[in-house]
């Protein structure tokens, strides 16, 4: 029997975006707080925290929660905390007060006429602060509650990225379909013009013989083979369709496929470039340029995938 039956029931892994936002509020132990988590594109997983004083110990657990859920993306994780109920303390800075009293007495010429109450209203004489009644155990409980709220925010962010990933996957499939259709059209154009291709070959051969009549049959055969190879785009078209099939397999596989998909886009673009450089036909060149544009649109969407 399997140790984790839930894992066996799990369906295909969905495509996940790297962009998203989540915000969760909490209140406990005399505090209210808000977690805000924002995610944008990144080549790796980059975590940036902004925590208020006294809450820095939360970062270690927060990092574990983020690493558990995400593999790529730049995450900005911010915590804003407000104390609801905390007794205040009042302290008199006697050193400052004595100096001010001495200055006032020196100015008036008599210490008896100095208004001490007025001096206490000056900045720096009276210091109002908060009494810290929290012991280590209380702080740990507080941090545990705040961290639990972050777990909820990270879960909401994961759901947001998943929903955005589903939308991107549909757009990616549309782009792949466009690339497939353009490649099929290019195959028809390349295969339906043998007459034109033969005429071009004959013209190139005549130009070659005009330049050098002493060429041997072996040299002529070599030159013809080069001319044919330069104009043959079948391999490029076959590889384009093969890369589209591989891209669809990746899309069906799901998960963290962004980097591999980006590599496939590079391969698709390389074949489209070669197709354009080999083409000597205007219609085929137009299709090659349309392919390059479609591949670029695909690549832009892939940059958002985890």
What is the topology?
Layout: H1 5-9, E1 20-28, E2 31-40, E3 45-50, H2 58-69, E4 73-83, E5 88-92, H3 94-108, H4 116-120, E6 126-130, H5 136-191, H6 194-211, H7 217-231, H8 234-253, H9 258-278, H10 282-302
Parallel strand pairs: 3-4
Antiparallel strand pairs: 1-2, 2-4, 5-6
Helix pairs in contact: 2-5, 5-8, 5-10, 6-7, 8-9, 9-10
What does this entry look like structurally?
With 306 residues, this protein is α+β, with helices and mostly antiparallel strands. The protein has 10 helices and 6 strands, in the order αβββαββααβαααααα. The chain has helices at residues 5-9, 58-69, 94-108, 116-120, 136-191, 194-211, 217-231, 234-253, 258-278, 282-302; strands at residues 20-28, 31-40, 45-50, 73-83, 88-92, 126-130. The strands form 2 sheets. It has a 4-stranded mixed beta sheet with strand order 1-2-4-3, with helices on one face. The longest helix is centred in the middle third of the chain and has 56 residues, at 136-191. The chain is elongated.
Characterize the overall form. Answer: elongated
Query: What share of the residues lie within helices?
Result: 55-70%
Overall structural class, as computed from helix and strand content, comes to alpha+beta
Show unreliable segments: 1-11
The description of the largest β-sheet is: 4 strands, mixed
Strand-and-helix sequence, N→C?
HEEEHEEHHEHHHHHH
What's the tally of helices?
A: 10
In angstroms, what separates the terminal alpha carbons? 33 Å
Strand order of the largest sheet: 1-2-4-3
Mean pLDDT: 81
Q: Strand-residue fraction?
A: 15-25%
Rg is 36 Å
Number of strands: 6
């Amino acid at each position: 029997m399997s140790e984790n039956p839930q894992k066996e029931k799990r369906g295909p892994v969905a495509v996940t975006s790297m962009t998203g936002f989540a915000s969760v509020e909490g209140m406990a132990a005399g505090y209210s707080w808000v977690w805000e988590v924002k995610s944008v594109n990144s080549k790796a997983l980059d975590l940036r925290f902004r925590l208020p004083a006294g809450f820095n110990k939360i970062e270690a657990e927060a990092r574990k929660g983020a690493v558990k859920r995400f593999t790529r993306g730049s995450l900005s994780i911010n915590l804003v905390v407000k104390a609801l109920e905390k007794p205040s303390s009042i302290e008199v800075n006697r050193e400052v007060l004595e100096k001010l009293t001495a200055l006032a007495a020196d100015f008036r010429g008599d210490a008896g006429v100095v208004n001490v109450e007025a001096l206490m209203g000056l900045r720096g004489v009276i210091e109002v602060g908060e009494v810290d009644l929290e012991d280590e155990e209380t702080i740990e409980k507080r941090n545990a509650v705040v961290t639990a709220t972050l777990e909820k925010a990270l879960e909401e962010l994961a759901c947001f990225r998943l929903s955005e990933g589903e939308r991107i996957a549909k757009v990616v499939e549309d782009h792949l379909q466009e690339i497939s259709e353009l490649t099929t059209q290019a195959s028809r154009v390349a295969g339906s013009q043998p007459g034109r291709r033969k005429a071009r070959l004959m013209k190139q051969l005549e130009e070659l013989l005009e330049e050098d009549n002493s060429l041997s049959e072996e040299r002529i055969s070599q030159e013809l083979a080069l001319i044919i190879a330069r104009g043959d785009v079948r391999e490029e078209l076959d590889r384009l369709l093969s890369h589209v099939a591989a891209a669809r397999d990746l899309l069906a596989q799901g998960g963290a496929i962004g980097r591999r998909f980006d590599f496939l886009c590079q391969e698709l673009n390389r074949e489209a470039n070669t197709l354009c450089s080999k083409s000597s036909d205007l219609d085929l060149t137009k299709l090659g340029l349309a392919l390059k544009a479609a591949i670029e649109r695909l690549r832009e969407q892939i940059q958002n995938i985890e």
